Amino acid sequence: MKKLVLVAGALIACSIVCQAQMTPKKAAIKEMFNVMHQDSLMKKTMNEMTIAMAASYKNQDPNNSPGENSMEKILERNKEATQGIITKMINEDMVDIYDKHFTLEEIKDFTIFYKSKSGQQLLNKTPDITRDMMSTMMTKYMPAMRQAMMSPGKSQ
């Protein structure tokens, strides 16, 4: 029983210390990310990128055999593995990056925009826009980029 009380006390103390380290600006950034549905947006965007990459690979290698080693299966396994990484990146790294590049006032302005009808529309369309951009890049520009990389010194 004493161990349980000590562990609970340690967890509470750790929680208080962690909350104390949260600046008002970082709290505002997290609120903005919440309004932006940043976690689901990132997951949708990653999903769209995975679909585009799988389609691109299938077009490049039509003999890609089905099974555990198919590109689709490999990408699916990687997508599952990245979910935890995305959450950590949003809650830690992106907060620090936004903290570095924007003022508290700018973060508050962004939050107001993302709460608006237009801001929500932008957020809802972002995965589709990303998918279309990835598809365009893979089909329209990737062949030229690959060719440029294979023959250095020539510009496109």
Structural write-up:
The chain is an all-alpha fold. 85% of the residues lie in helices and 0% in strands. The chain contains six helices and no strands. The protein has helices at residues 2-21, 24-35, 38-60, 71-101, 104-115, 117-150. α2 packs across α4 (71-101) and α3 (38-60) packs across α4 (71-101). The longest helix is centred in the C-terminal third of the chain and has 34 residues, at 117-150. The chain is elongated, with a radius of gyration of 22 Å. Mean pLDDT is 78; it is low at 13-17.
Summarize the structure.
85% of the residues lie in helices and 0% in strands. By secondary structure, it is an all-alpha fold. The chain is elongated.
What is the number of helical segments per DSSP (H or I, 4+ residues)?
6
Order of helices and strands: HHHHHH
Q: Helicity range of the residues?
A: over 70%
The overall pLDDT average reads 78
Largest sheet: none
Overall structural class, as computed from helix and strand content, comes to mainly alpha
Q: Beta-strand level of the residues, as a percent range?
A: under 5%
Instruction: Kindly provide the radius of gyration, computed on alpha-carbon positions and rounded to a whole number of angstroms.
Output: 22 Å
**Beginning-to-end CA distance, first to last residue:** 72 Å
Low-pLDDT runs: 13-17
Shape: elongated
- By DSSP, the count of extended strands is 0
